[in-house]
Design a protein that fits this description.
Blueprint: H1 2-6, E1 17-19, E2 29-31, H2 32-44, H3 49-56, E3 63-68, E4 78-82, H4 83-93, E5 104-107, H5 114-127, E6 130-133, H6 140-147, E7 151-154, H7 156-170, H8 174-195, H9 202-222, E8 229-232, H10 239-247, E9 252-257, E10 264-267, E11 286-289, E12 294-298, E13 305-306, H11 310-316, E14 323-332, E15 335-341, E16 346-347, E17 353-354, H12 356-364, E18 369-375, E19 383-388, H13 390-399, H14 407-412, H15 414-425
Parallel strand pairs: 1-2, 5-6, 5-7, 7-8, 8-9
Antiparallel strand pairs: 3-4, 4-13, 9-10, 11-12, 12-14, 14-15, 16-17, 18-19
Length: about 425
């Protein structure tokens, strides 16, 4: 609110500011409760009939929202989504997942992001399920314990952090380590059978029940004890992380989409799970792979266009109505796989093509790594920029009795550089 008020004079088209908090009301700011009361009074006086008439005049192709892209491959663009874009995506994507009015979700991702807006907001409302809004992503564990949701939608980095923390705890003692990896081994063997549509052998089923009681039940309790499944989107999810969660009785249904497609294009479902893929294409949507490997999409969920950018719209949607996603992928066994971004492909000075995302994904799974990016276009060889996970690195440095005052000094220490090289390159 403070940011909006600061630039209020630069926003001539902004007519009203409505605040949830009554204490925030003031010059130019209306409290939501006061707004409701004003509307109720107008309706009681016979002045409120225009609202329903106005609502009924809304057409499927009318603009519903403008959501800006992240701008990772260029300037952010305003994606114009219609009511039908969003409705069609809810109608075609969400029935693939077992959601009902009995479900309770936890929302921690920003609603300015299309993934949370559609899957965690509009779609949940359409089923009549309950939405609980978390304090923040940093407060996730506490919120999970308090809310005890049945469905949670998160980005891959969160699942990877949880997995890294589980591994860290397992290495705390030799006994814990032995029990954990025995459980993990048998749990993943059981998962392989289930994912292949096979009945696990009796001996393996017995081992799995023991593993579930000793190890996996603790993880299920840690996330509230009622989670039926997770949903993952916005970035690739590592297959080994997905398999571990599946073995733990916490399946993660990974999906794929873009802001421009409202967003869901494909999603794994209980009936069809392909680890390492983003699942089958949703109904009533056409997907084809271009000659250069780019994924093309056509259907009712494809955006109206980019706000005030007709040229960019023509570049993205061709004359036949195909939206060019910019992602490279393939369709095998009914499941869509994403291999990289078309613009992200690295071509070295020697002419070698390198897809950086799979490599970056492996590195980012390390508990000492917060983020990683590979660069090398038109260079002799690629290099990787790694941002340390200081929450893990600093305790290790203290244990090694290293001295530093600032983090920049910490990462310049030879022992730390050697440690990071060992962790990243093994």
């Amino acid at each position: 609110l403070a940011k909006v008020l600061e630039i209020r004079g630069e926003l001539p088209n902004l007519k009203h500011i409505i605040a949830f908090d009554p204490a925030a009301a003031g010059p130019g700011v209306i409290a939501l409760a006061a707004h409701y009361a004003s509307g109720a009074a107008a309706e009681a006086a016979g002045e409120g009939k225009g609202f329903k008439e106005e609502a009924l005049r809304v057409k499927p192709d009318d603009l519903a929202t403008i959501i800006y892209t992240s701008g990772t491959t260029g300037d952010p663009k305003g994606v114009m989504l219609t009511h039908n874009n969003i409705y069609s995506n809810c109608a075609n994507a969400m029935p693939q997942l077992p959601v009902s009015s009995e479900d309770s979700t936890l929302s921690v991702l920003p609603l300015s992001h299309i993934f949370e807006r559609m899957a965690g907001h509009y779609a949940v409302f359409s089923f009549g399920a309950t939405i609980n809004y978390g304090a923040s992503i940093e407060n996730l564990v506490v919120d999970l314990g308090e809310v005890r949701p049945t469905i949670v939608m998160l980005v891959p980095r969160v699942y990877e952090k949880v997995y890294a923390r589980v591994l860290e705890n397992a290495l705390a003692s030799p006994v814990k380590k032995r029990i954990f990896f025995w459980a993990k081994h048998n749990g993943e063997k059981w998962a392989d059978c289930m994912l292949a549509g096979q009945t696990p052998p009796a001996g393996l089923s017995l081992k799995y029940r023991i593993a579930s009681r000793l190890v996996f039940s603790k993880l299920r309790a840690r996330v509230g004890g009622r989670v039926r499944f997770f949903v993952s989107g916005a970035a690739p999810l590592a297959a080994d992380v997905a398999k571990f969660f599946f073995a733990a009785g916490l399946p993660i249904y990974e999906g794929y989409g873009l802001t421009e497609t409202s967003p869901v294009i494909a999603v794994n479902t209980p009936k069809k799970v392909g680890l390492g893929t983003v699942g089958p294409v949703i109904p009533n949507l056409e997907v084809r792979i271009a000659d250069d490997g780019e994924i093309l999409v056509r259907g009712p969920n494809v955006m109206k266009g980019y706000f005030n950018k007709p040229e960019a719209t023509r570049e993205a949607i061709d004359a036949e109505g195909w939206f060019h996603t910019g992602d490279i992928g393939d369709l095998k066994d009914g499941c869509l796989s994403i291999t990289d971004r078309k613009k992200d492909l690295i071509v070295t000075a020697g002419g070698k093509n390198i897809a950086p995302q799979p490599i970056e994904g492996v590195v980012k799974k390390n508990r000492y790594v917060a983020s990683a990016v590979m660069i090398g276009d038109r260079r002799k060889f690629p290099v990787m920029l790694v941002v340390p996970q200081y929450e893990q690195l600093e305790p290790w440095a203290k244990e090694m009795k290293l001295s530093w005052e600032r983090r920049r000094q910490l990462i310049e220490l030879p022992a730390v550089q050697k440690k990071m090289e060992e962790e990243v390159f093994g």
